[in-house]
Design goal:
Helix content: 40-55%
CATH class of the largest domain: Alpha Beta
Oligomer: single chain
Distance between the termini: 46 Å
Order of helices and strands: HHEHEHEHEEHEEHHEHHEEHHHHHEE
Largest sheet: 7 strands, mixed
Number of strands: 12
Length: 373
């Protein structure tokens, strides 16, 4: 009877272990294509002095030819542009972004991307975030993947870098929750169900013709979850999207401090998660207020065990710990942080509630927005 009560935690451990061992599709399955049509890599950058040099160097080092790299400085105040401007590589171009168009309605990232697109010459467009690091084989394999699969948008899931205490405590919980919400990538790829479509805005490769036909980033200028809405626009237009795992070929460090983690996920979760639910008004209205509930699955066992000494709760806590050891190992993060999983779960629950309470009021990189979904 004791093991029967603890069975849900054991089942989760088995399912997650199986998923980690069988993640498909993988970018490594595509042979690198070293030459082909011009790829214009567009990197929007606002106050990215910490990241921009690493990102640009890694993109320039690609094995793919030909490319052009367009960095759009989105009115940075930290010297981002000065770190790009001295570069002498002829393939690199700095665009000093204009102020946001008057009247509101634009998020800064989309406005920067559109400015980069307007000067890009490539038949293929790659939108990459400044906090990413690319291996030389990343672009060649992605171009091959897009052509082999005959799709219109090709996007990847990278390895997440976690260097500080708070990153290692919190980030694995968010990534596991998001991956669980996405489910099997084979259900996403070539989907014809709009709300199942997703893309990772850190790396989106598309043909120019497909991008222009859905209205470019101007069509999703009003939302913080532009990558999700862009993928859904592709599906709505009858176009194919494709998502692969690429942990070996790309890394990203999204946030570097507790303050950044709280601000970053607060702005994203309540806007994005409802769009991944069936398009029923009442469902999407309540989803932001329910996002935190799965955290109880991890919090309940240790709390009950400490409060009552109940053996079943102790077994569930042990199984939960083994599960988080597996998660940390999969994410290439130090496994000795796994015992802190209750703290991570509690903070993520707080972030999700905070995101729901904030609603459409979004503050990011010194700007305030009132977003619409």
């Amino acid at each position: 009877m004791t093991w029967l009560v603890a069975a849900p935690w054991a089942l989760v451990l088995l399912l997650l272990s199986y998923r980690f061992a069988t993640r498909r599709p993988q970018l490594r399955d595509y042979e690198p294509l070293l030459t082909g049509p011009l790829v214009s890599v567009i990197i929007p950058a606002r106050n990215e002095a910490r990241n921009i040099e690493r990102c640009v160097r890694s993109v320039i080092a690609t094995d793919y030819k030909p490319i052009e790299v367009i960095v759009v400085d989105d009115r940075s105040t930290d010297g981002t542009a000065e770190l790009v401007e001295p570069a002498t590589d002829a393939r690199l171009r700095l665009v000093r972004g204009a102020e946001l168009p008057p009247g509101g309605g634009w998020f800064g990232k989309q406005w920067a991307i559109v400015q980069g697109y307007r000067v890009a010459r490539g038949e293929m467009l790659l939108f990459a975030d400044a906090d990413t690091k690319h291996e030389p084989a990343l672009i060649p394999r992605a171009v091959r993947g897009l052509q082999t699969e005959r799709v219109d948008l090709f996007t990847v899931l990278p390895r997440q870098e976690m260097k500080t205490f708070w990153e290692r405590v919190i980030q694995p919980h968010v990534f596991l929750a998001l991956e669980t919400g996405v489910g099997d990538l084979r259900l996403v790829n070539r989907t014809r169900t709009e709300w199942r479509a997703i893309a990772n805005g850190q790396f989106i490769l598309t043909t120019r013709s497909a991008y222009e036909s859905v209205g470019t980033h101007e069509a999703v200028r009003h939302s913080v979850v532009d990558d999700l809405l862009l993928a859904q626009a592709y599906v709505r237009s009858g176009k194919d999207i494709f998502l692969v795992h690429a942990q070996e070929f790309m890394a990203t460090r999204m946030y570097g401090s507790l303050r950044e983690i709280l601000a970053g996920w607060t702005k994203n979760l309540a806007s994005g998660v409802p769009l991944m639910a069936p398009p029923l008004r009442w469902v999407r209205a309540i989803v932001p207020y329910l996002m935190w509930i799965p955290s109880l699955f991890w919090l309940a066992p240790p709390i009950v065990w400490l409060a009552t000494g109940w053996h079943v709760a102790a077994i569930a806590t042990l199984i939960s710990l083994l599960t988080w050891i597996a998660v940390y190992a999969s994410e290439r993060a130090p496994v000795w942080y796994a015992p802190l999983y209750p703290l991570g779960a509690a903070i993520v629950a707080f972030i999700m509630l905070r995101s729901a309470w904030r609603g459409r009021r979004i503050e990011w990189r010194g700007r305030s927005y009132s977003a619409s979904p």
